[in-house]
Amino acid sequence: MKENDFIHPYIPNSVPEVRDEMLRAVGLKSVYDVYSEIPERLRFKGVLDIPEAIQSEYALKRHVEQVLGKNKTCREYLNFLGAGCWQHYVPAVVDEIVNRSEFLTAYCGANYSDVGKYQARFEFNSLMAELLDIDAVSNPIYDWGDAAGRAIRMASRITGRNEVLVPKLTCPDRLGEIRQLCQLEEMSNAIAVILVAHDPETGLLDLNDLNTKLSDATAAVYYETPSYLGLIEDQGEEITRMAHKKGALSIGGVDPISLGILCPPGSYGADLIVGDLQPLGVHMSAGGGQSGFIAFRDEEIFIAECPLEIYSIMDTVEEGEYAFAEVRSDRTSYGSRDKGKDWVGTASGLWTIASAVYLSLMGPKGMKEIGEVIIKNSKYTQNLISSLPGVSIKFSQPHFKEFLVDFSASGKTIAQINAALLQEKIFGGKDISGEYPELGECALFCVTEIHTKEDLNRLYLALKEIV
Amino acid sequence: MKGIKLKKYHAPKYDEPLIMEIGVDGRRGIMVPQVDKEIDDTVGTLEDLIPAKSQRKKAPALPEIDQYHTLMHFLRLSQMTLGMETGIDIGEGTCTMKYSPKVNEELVRSPQMAEVHPLQPEKTLQGILEIAYELRNYLKAISGMDEFCFQTGGGAHATYINACITRKYFQERGELGTRNEVITTQFTHPCNAATPSTAGFRVIILPHKNGYPDLDALKSVVSERTAAIHMTNPEDTGLYNPVVDEFTKAVHDAGGLCFYDQANANGIMSVARAREAGFDACHFNLHKTFSSPHGCEGPAAGAYGCTEALAAYLPVPVVTKLSDAYHLDFDRPKSIGKVRSFYGNLPAVLRAYAWIRSMGPKGIKTTAEISILNNQYLEHLLSQIDGISYPYAEGKPRFEQIRYSMAKLKEETGLGSHEIQNRIVDFGIQSYWLSHHPYVVPEPFTPEPCETYSKEDIEYWATAIEQACKEARETPEIIESAPHNQAIHQIKDFSQAEDADRWAITWRAYKKKTKK
Questions:
Q1: At B326, which helix (H) or strand (E)?
Q2: Residue ranges of the domains in chain B?
Q3: DSSP per-residue codes, A295-353
Q4: What is the ipTM of this complex?
Q5: Mind listing the pLDDT tens digit for each residue in B495-508?
Q6: Which of B80, B92, B99, B119 to mutate against chain A (most A CBs within 10 Å)?
Q7: What does the alpha-carbon distance between residue B426 and residue B68 come to, in Å, rounded to a whole number?
Q8: Residues in chain A with pLDDT < 70?
Q9: Of B54, B353, B422, which has the smallest distance from its Cβ to A225's Cβ?
């Protein structure tokens, strides 16, 4: 082996003898005969300024573990952060399946060689359709906010209108993603995002304000249940009716883990439903587990305007066999470039398989029980915390798993409270005093099935000391 | 090919029913934590806790299956998926189907990555922020750009934020009213046309001239209306555009910005960079070039890089380093804002970091060189097969991939790249991918034998193609009725997926439409 040879376990043809044999076969002295296509002025000269290779796998692992070890985890700390990424239990069978090499490494294999992937995806669609009570589900996109933006763009194309009504209390980051997809007002295809006020007492969408803002220009009304601040929005049916009366569509945003106990928007006629799959069997991974789903009515106009890939179950020449193929592939940017609907690209496909396994394990009883334990743990925590002096729960409407705690009357800021909680190895709720200064010193706490009564009492006792 | 024996492969075939068709009422796949008795006694019933209108009246019709059989079902589906690691995945060109190291998967699954909440205080995220910051530095070196962000959830998403950044840049200059055109080329990935169109730009697609993007055509359309060009190099054809800097110059001279889609970067890393070619911004796919697994079409990650002049517009947050601590910088008043929740796909960032650390500068150079060599070797083998050719620029070498054509085979046998695709999977290799839109190369297929694949893999793959082409001539019925060794047989009638009365996207829709 010469000094400059570099044999790497990930590169079988890095062995000099193999490389030279291949060069001889193709009649080249070196690959630089090919690189000679790149003019000198465009060449990078010198050595990349990156560290030398860590050659042994063991040393690499030690190194990365040492760096990653500077993170604190939600196993070491008691976590009450949610706000779009939620700590739920991931069943062992889900991890076993999503870590299967075949699923982990598959990509766009055609109809036959990856048929198991397509079947799992169809099962995901079918399971989600039952949970959401609606008939069509597409491939997912990056996250909830992107799914909401795509649904709004679909509604705008379907109705030929260019305004969307969105609750003022939508998660600011999600609203930012929606605005990014609704485009700047200078652009000819811009959709105006009009914010709808909330009832200051209940926190629910203010239907009078909605009524005022609904017009013949409204493409869709977007609402969420549970909302960003955890409230169960129970006016979905009225909102949908009001939207339909004006010829607009209704888009419901949901946390799918709530749907064993909460009524799905499909049951009262919502046209599109969006949300994030992360609660259904995907680890938090610092926000890496997000996946936005879109479901809609099984009508040609919805299929025609969907920018994402959609697959149908198909018959084969053998009776009783299932195959799968893409529905109207010329809709997408893969099929029609700039003439396609928005764009499609590699997004978050593996998490459909996680969610399919999750929902299959849970079944109807599991989904009901998990909804029940979450809402009851959450209520228990709300009761405990609101018994502290100067501390109250904001908004009277019932909550599902998240709730806003108002510490304004305690005289302490959220920053101070969270710093003190951190000392006790507790990640306190998300500080939203910067997002909504008008609400005062408020933090969004998230309680799920992973919290035991002891965990919740520990939070209460820690807060009692702090305030 | 001499001396290569194709495997007597057969895919696992289980006649596996749909999950919706199995199960027995009352069976449980998992037990969830139960409500603590004291909590249950104090908070009231579900009816007390949920407003009447929001209570779910009818349970979702999910299957009820025990754990062993749930596992068995999905294991069988996984076995009915060839994926990348069991089936020499040379065929999915432009996708760089490289090996995703298992040690990186172990790291991603560790609690220090998997059990971390993105909104934790910065000081509890120092490990992953350090990794993101260092990866930024490595990608700066590989591209010559000045700043990177990892917000985008895929490659196409990165081209979208380029359109958003372009828009913001010209809005600030008061030129957005006039600069409303984005130019791209025919053999650049379709997202480079689709994302500016979504962002509200008019899109101009340059034709090719003998396989190369046409510089004269660019000069004839570039104007004060030009906001940007989105292009790649080498393009889908594998041809390297040697005057790419004249493209960027023409656009810059007209006042536009230049974006480089680097999805095809694998063969030129450490040889040519975005900086020297005059680009203002570029992106890499961490799930292609930097080894993060493709995961059934995601989770993906685009790494978007740009020059100092555009850095102020990057989506928030950007990872920074101040006196030995890493920070998430949200205070960027000119930023285009949010494009994805939180900080992007950080597990993919971690894998890319670990892959680069395992390679070092020599390994990255070797990666590029071997990916080029592998492609020359495959070309050498495929060129010997009667019926296969590739158009344009005769005599010019291709870089890491080639868009071939089976037009001659089709003409002579009536069987082309669709039919051959159905057959090669019978030999235990992953199906190949045909072409991006537009289908200007007739009967296309686009293999990319990246550095992962051995000389023997390439020979096996070429032999499978050779055998299928031979069958097209000698025993066409085998090709016409393929596949034969897969879990299922040929799809009866693709028009089913075009017809609203017959397509079914979910099981409940299927039951309604077939009256089952």
A1: strand B325-329
A2: 11-55+64-81+486-516, 106-357, 368-484
A3: EE-SSHHHHHH--S--EEEEEBSSTT-EEEEES-GGGSHHHHGGGSSS------THHHH
A4: 0.98
A5: 999 999 999 999 99
A6: B119
A7: 31
A8: 1-4
A9: B54
